[in-house]
Structure formats: structure tokens, C-alpha cells
Amino acid sequence: MTTTPTRTAASALTVHELPAVWQLRAVGGPVPAHLEGLTIPAAVPGLVHTALLDADLVPDPFLDRNEHAVAWVGECAWEYSTSFDWEPDDHERHDLVFEGLDTVATVQLNGEVVAATRNQHRTYRVDVGDVLRPGANRLVVTFASPIREADRASLEIGYRPHTYVHPFNALRKAACNFGWDWGLEAASSGIWRPVRVEGWSRARASAVRPVVGVRGADGTVAVHVDVERSAAGVGVELEVVATVRGVEGTAAVPAGASSAVVELVVPDVELWWPRGRGDQPLHDLAVALRAEDALLAERHQRIGFRTVEVRMDPDEEGTGFQFLVNGEPLWVRGANWIPDDAFVTRVTRDRLAARLDQAATANINLLRIWGGGYFESDDFYDLCDERGFLVWQDFLFACASYAEEEPLWSEVEAEARDNVTRLMPHPSLALWNGNNENVWGHDEWGWEKRLQGRTWGLGYYLDLLPRVVAELDPVRAYTPASPWSGSPDLPANDPDHGSVHLWEHWNRVDYPTYRDVHARFVAEFGWQGPATWSTTTRAISDAPLTPESPGMAHHQKAQDGNDKLTDGLVAHLPLPDDVEDWHWAMSLNQALAVTVGIEHMRSESPRCSGSVVWQLNDCWPVTSWAAVDGDGRAKPLLYALKHVYEDALLTVQPRGDGLAAVAVNDAPAPWRGQARARRVRFDGTVLAEHAWEADVQPRDASTTALPPDVTRPDDPREELVVVDSCGRRAFWFFAEHRDSALAAADLEAVAERTAEGYRVVVTARGLVRDLALLVDKVDPEAVVDDMLVTLLPGEQATFEVRSRLDVDPARLVDPRVLRTSNQLVADWG
């Protein structure tokens, strides 16, 4: 293939794009007989697994138990190869640039080894000017087996405790690629980010770091530019020119120097705000590197003017954990983010946009990038900048102890420098965090004893990483760990101090006990539920399909996961025998559990300042804690988040020996108007009521104790409390679903065609609880605007369904599609 050199806009930099399709073959390991000696085309960027799938040579590991059928891939060594034409030009330097190699790789150009890599999370740049030939050039990248390399490296550095089977902590590779309690084991290899040859002369801009601030009404930008010089460029004086919003500044880079800072002051800037707090104005920052009259390089980045702090201030109750944006406290309505596909190269910008649209539907304002995956892509951060999502980015350490000796120490520093530099211009980036659960694991999971005095990563979290952040991104907040209490002398997961992870409730207790925890900030908690019905039945072909049939069991990766699902259900809802009823019950229970947790956390504002639910998304079809399943379909949990993360939340909570109505107002306007609490029988009869005037200031909360005649039922099985105020509503049921007198759903449902799909109108003649429209059973691509609605007798709800499929509208009101908790309770026993 002949590559066409291109020059970046008005720049002397020349980019030779390499072929998009390479050749791939296995070169070692337990290769199946039918693949021995076979060479196949492989897209670059791409992975071995995706190339094999594209060639139809392996079964889809997302289906049934096919994961086992492709396990050999991670035990093999693989070779990528390509040829490209190159003609000499007048540039002094020619660099081969790999933005991402996964993971242990040897790079040969024209038979000469030019690089050996051991870190998926770094960019590699190699001067190949002496190796390139006029005409045809041969480039070969050979990847060692990631499973065998992890095992070998763990022996070299010495045992360090970790979760799951493989010693992922011995390699700088995404931990979840080796399998997790929501992810399949699919340790892959490949050229997972772009590769190119760059030609340049005298100097290039090796890094551009805009340190953005706000001073009064003005925006400030300190543009830090690092330069790399060629041999001929060492004695050349350079100039850096930076421009944003019509403001231009310059700085000289004297001969022999390697950096400069351009200071800009931009008057009367509009501030960038997280979603729900304001707009997200973004501005183009242009940076040019010049020598005399020649333009050597040019960079463009978008920036936004805002300030973000994470304060961990001691107070009389412990240690807070408070996000402030532009000086204003923010109650974090967050979700954890994992890689959106087990094969990360399949995640497109459009796919990320769809997922962020779902996060917006759920009223989420922060996404935490979990440390067992990746430093997220530029596309991800660009979209968060545009949509106003704050991003909490973990450094890539998760659920394990990590050696601090060489060669890992230098690898960690290199990847941190690469990625802090790449991501710090984004206004959405709010927090760097050192690790996920490693300090907690060391202190409370028995790791300290097993380590026998070996290093375990604390030096990264308390020394190396904060130093890199302070140097390269000095205005960004950093925390050493999640959970983190503010000091290594305090227990890591103390609810009175800093951030906590709440997992005992799912693992061993039950979700009403969320109300017994009075945390300052909850960075992880969650409840499992199955993937949507259409995703489950696409991925699993068991006949019959049962909760424990082979495929279903395989798509449940959590230890004792199905037992925990059952134990977490039966105190609240009956356990159905019919598999579709089971699926609905578990989906509903997941939503109910998270609702209980978040309503409690928000009701304790400002002591509690945020919740980050585990998790928004999935990477394959699996029973998990996600709100969006592996096929990108919203589970009922997403709609529960939509309700509990609304700007203004009304909730009923236990307070002392009684109940209280808590109004949480995260909206910009005051919440003023009448509030009314009623004790009501299921048939709609009002037994007692109490009215008052609600007056809740913006970003504030108000608690109103309810009188005993409203909160003490005559018959807890058939009564509830309903609180209404200014179009908002809250319920309190005195009995669990299974212990209540909930009757069969008495309702009228009518569906009709609309321009966008369908409209379903439901009128309740009796109490209807947890009304949901599982539209994917009719059209797997359909989306409904709301779900989990409770109606009192005589009330009505309208659901809008987006669908391109032409079906009989009556299918949407079939009892297997139009679901309620009444269906699960009424005929039980």
C-alpha cells in the first residue's frame, strides 16, 4: 500500500497514515489445528478477538458459553504485519508513533527491532529515520500471550494479592480484560489505538498543557508547551503563540531550552457548568510553534473556564467530601463507568454519545471512570465537555496490591504523565483518584498479612501520582483512593470520613439497611439485576431458559450471585417460578433497592454530598449492577435513577419513631407552595391528612415531621402515605410488597400509533404499583420515556414509545409487556 503524506493545518509536520488493514497470524501457544499457519486480515486499530470474529473463525464469546471456546486466544502469541511505501523528504526526524499497544509487544521495522513495550496505557514514539527505506517498508508487531506474560511477571516481581484468577496486577494492562464479577475473561492483544509515521524538523510540540483558571470575571490560561528538538534544532530560538477568544500571547523558547509558558487573560468569560447548573461554553485554544518565519507545529484544543474543587474538610461529624464547581457546592448524582465493550476498539463515538444520552435521561451529573479499565478516550471526554458531565478519573489500579519496584514504577510514571497531559485540558475532568479499593483491601481484606512486608502500591497513591498531578495539572483535585477517609491513619471505608463503598448490603444484609448508614459521600454501591429480556434471549439460547440454566449461570459472574439475587428479593417480593416473572421481579427489585439507597442519601444532604451508583453500563450481556445492559438497552434501574436524581426530590424517610417528608431542592429556583401528606387505603380512601407550606431554598433541603395520625396505620397491609407538593410526589408503604394486600392490577390500557412510535395511556381503577412498559419485548430497539410509575385509583399515566417497527399496538399492553408489581404479589401463595 502507498501512503499519502499529509500536512496538518498550515504545519510543517508531515503525517504518513499507515494501512487500516494489516495481516494477523498466531505465532505460538495452543492454536487450534484449523488456524495453524493461517493469516487473516485485521483492522487497525483493533484486537485479535475482533479480527477473528470479523473473519468468522471463532464463535461470539458474548453468546451462551462461548467464552470458554475462545479462552485459548489469550494464551497465544500473535503477529501483526503490514507493508507501506515511503519516500525520503526534507524532514530531519521520522517517528513511528503507536498510540496504544496491548500489551507486551516487540516492534520490528524492516527486520530491525525498534521498540519493546509492556504497557497498554502509554503512547510510544520511536525515531526510525535510520531504518526507513525508500519504497516498500515492512512493519511487524509481535505480541506475547497476555496470560502467560502476567503469570511470568508475577513470578519475577513476587506474589501480590489480587482478586479473581489471573495476576492482572503484574502487567500494565486493563485489569478487567482478564475477567471480573461482571465481565468475561477475554485477555486480548492488538494495536488498539492509531499508528502513524510523523516527519518533522528542528522542533515539535511534544506537549501542550493549558492550566485554566478564573479570576473575577476573567478567565486565565497558562499554556505550558514542551518541545522536543532535532539535532539541528538545538541551537534554534523558538516562539510559542497561543490564541483563545481573540486574545493572543507569545513566549520565547531560547536556544537549548525545552519549554515555555504563555499567559493569557480572557475578559468577561462565560463559565462552564456541569449539567443542570448552567451552560457549557467551549473555546478553541490554538497554539503554534514557530522558528523565525516557519510554522513548525500547530495544536488545537477546546477549553472551558471553570473551577473545580474537592474539599475534604474536617468538621464536628468527621470529614466531608464535597465537590464545588465555580465555588458552588454540588450534590453529586453520579454513576460508575466501566469499559462499554469487552473489546474496547468496538466503542465508537456514536456509541458513547448514546450512552451519555442515557446518563442524561437518568439526571446524572458525574461519571466515575473506574480504575480496572482504561483512561477514557478523547471522544468520551469531548462528549462530556459538550454535555456537562463531570468526570472522576481513576488511575488504573483496582482491587489488588501492586509492586512499586522497577520496571513497574517507571511504567506507571510514564503512563500517568501521558494521560494527565492528554486529558487535563478537558473542563469535564474534575478529579484524579489514585486507585479503586486497594487501601481498603490492604487494611481490611487480609492483604497486609499475605504481603509479608512487600510493597503494595501506597507509594504510587501517596507519592508518585500526586506529584505528577501537582506538576502537570496543578489546579485539579487528587485523592489517593476510593474509598478514602482523608488520612492513611483512618480506616479507609469509614462512613464518617470521606468517600465510602457500600457492599455489605448487597453481599450479606439487605437494602433497607442503607438507611442505617450515614455517609459523607458514597462512591460505590449497587444492586444486581438481569439484562433486559431481549438482550438476555439474544445472548442465551437455553431451552428451557431458567434462572440457573447453563447459559444463564454463565452470564452471572458474581460469586454466589444468583443466591444473593434471591436472598435480596424474598424479603420484599415473592420468588416467581415462571422465568419471565422472575426476570421482571429481579429487574424491579434492583430498581427498588437503588431507590431506597439514593433517597436516603439525598435526604441526608448536606451531611451526605453525593452518591455514585455502581454502575451505569455493561461490557457484554450479563446479570450485573448496570442500569444499561451490554446491548445498550435501558433496564428499569435507569428510570429509577431518572426519578431519584431529579433536581427536586420529595421523599418520605424514617426519623426517630416516626416519618418525615424531606424536600431536597437541587434546582436553581425556590420550592414554594402547599405540601400535603395523606394516609390512604389502597382503595383510595383518605384516612388522615396534614398540610403545610413548603419553602425550600435552591440547593437546600427541608425536613417536615409528619403527625402520628398520618404515620400510624390501622392496617399496614393495605395503607400507604402519599405526600404531594408542587407537582412532586412521594410514597411510603407500611408493608413490603409481599406482605401487603396488593390486588391484581385493575387498569385500562390503550395503545395507539404516533409519528414517533406509540402512545400508551394507562388509567388505574385500583392501586397500581411500579407500572413499567418493557417495550424491548415488542421491539428490541424501542425506547419508552418513563417507567416505574405508581398510580392511585382514578389516576392516569401516559407513556411515549419511540419505535420504527410497525406492530399491532395491542402488543404493548400485553401483561407480559405492561408490567406491575401487582402481578407478582396478587396471586402469590
UniProtKB/TrEMBL annotation:
A family per Pfam: Glyco_hydro_2_N2
Enzyme class: hydrolase
Membrane spanning stretches: none
EC numbers: 3.2.1.25
Catalysed reaction, written as an equation: Hydrolysis of terminal, non-reducing beta-D-mannose residues in beta-D-mannosides
Database matches in InterPro entries: Beta-gal/glucu_dom_sf, Beta-mannosidase-like_N2, Beta-mannosidase_GH2, Galactose-bd-like_sf, GH, Ig-like_fold, Ig-like_GH2
Keywords: Glycosidase, Hydrolase
Residue ranges of domain Glycoside hydrolase family 2 immunoglobulin-like beta-sandwich in the record: 219-306
DNA-binding in keyword set: no
Beta-mannosidase-like galactose-binding domain span: 22-193
Family to which the UniProt record says this protein belongs: Belongs to the glycosyl hydrolase 2 family.
PANTHER family, per the entry: BETA-MANNOSIDASE (PTHR43730)
This protein's name: beta-mannosidase
Organism name: Pseudokineococcus basanitobsidens
